[in-house]
Amino acid sequence: MQIEFDLRVSGEEHADPYLDPSDVEMLFNATRADLRPAIERKLAGVRCAEHGAEPMVRVVVSYDREAEQMDVVYTVEACCQPFLLRVVQILHHIG
Ligand SMILES: [Zn+2]
């Protein structure tokens, strides 16, 4: 399976931010290090029953400097709708 991470920073930085840029980078790296094996475990051997294809997962991790909040959004690409729904369901169970 293919997993891609997209790390984004948005918003205006506060004058005295809770997390400075190196903290944000550390947080991104830690999030990626946590999520990648979790996703790999969840989707190990998961293939479309009809087409035999593996899913592609894109994880967008974004940090809003204004709200000082991190958000994680999963996007799944799959060969067909039924398999897409199955993969999304599996991913929903990642804690
Ligand atoms: Zn399929």
Polypeptide structure, described:
The chain has one domain (2-91). The longest helix has 23 residues, at 21-43. By secondary structure, it is an alpha+beta fold. The chain is elongated and about 55 Å long. Strands 1-2-3 form a 3-stranded mixed β-sheet. The chain has 2 helices and 3 strands, in the order E-H-E-E-H. The model has no long low-confidence stretch (mean pLDDT 93). The chain is 36% helix and 28% strand. Zinc ion binds next to loops. Residues 48, 50-51, 53, 79-80, 83 line the site of zinc ion (ZN).
Quick structural overview:
The chain has helices at residues 21-43, 81-91; strands at residues 2-10, 56-64, 69-77. With 95 residues, it is an alpha+beta fold.
Number of strands: 3
Tell me the count of domains.
Answer: 1
Low-confidence stretches: none
Name the bound molecules: zinc ion
What is the 3D form? elongated
Distance linking N and C termini: 20 Å
> Within the largest sheet, what's the order of strands?
1-2-3
Mean pLDDT: 93
The biggest sheet, with number of strands, parallel, antiparallel or mixed sense and barrel status, is: 3 strands, mixed
In percent, how helical is the residue content? 25-40%
SS field, number of helical segments: 2
Give the helices and strands as they follow along the chain. Answer: EHEEH
Structural class: alpha+beta
Strand percentage, roughly?
25-35%
Radius of gyration: 16 Å
